[in-house]
Amino acid sequence: MKVRKVKKVKRTSFIKRTGSFFKQIFSSLKKETIDGANLPDNREEHQKDIRLFVAVVSSMALFIVLVIFVNAGRLTFQTISRPGFNFFTQKIDDEKIFAQAINIAQNPLPFKWLIGIFVISFLGGFGLSKRLKFATKDVAYGQKGDERFTTEKELEKQYPIIPDHDDRSDE
């Protein structure tokens, strides 16, 4: 019975592995231009800017809406919890409560509540931005393409006309 010896594979050092890893990262960061006809421009950076803008705007809008509704809910709860309030005999003045909720200077929310609302709106805005990223179609940078259609003359030149054999004249 023969025993085969297996060669030991030398492992590269940690420094070499991390160096090559960083080299791959930084080599992909440098800007390269591709010479060619009608290449699309790099839209990835532009799409990142748009997604960031959408995230910030939607976060701000969501923050304002949440602050108003949370403040209205707090004021409604304060109205209900007053001593002597009875659902059967008294009505809640919704318009008055909503007008007070919009006036945040007179009826401010506690700071902890504002931080919680800010975090929720931040996550909601960036969640919407991520959803937009996955919903849009990515176009590969440097993908060649033409901006015009092929003309009939070019098609006739590339594909010669095959004679039509339907007209058989057997005499």
From TrEMBL:
Keywords per UniProt: Membrane, Transmembrane, Transmembrane helix
TM region(s), chain numbering: 52-72, 111-128
Superkingdom classification of source: Bacteria
Protein name, entry field: Conjugal transfer protein TraG
Species this chain originates from: Lactobacillus taiwanensis
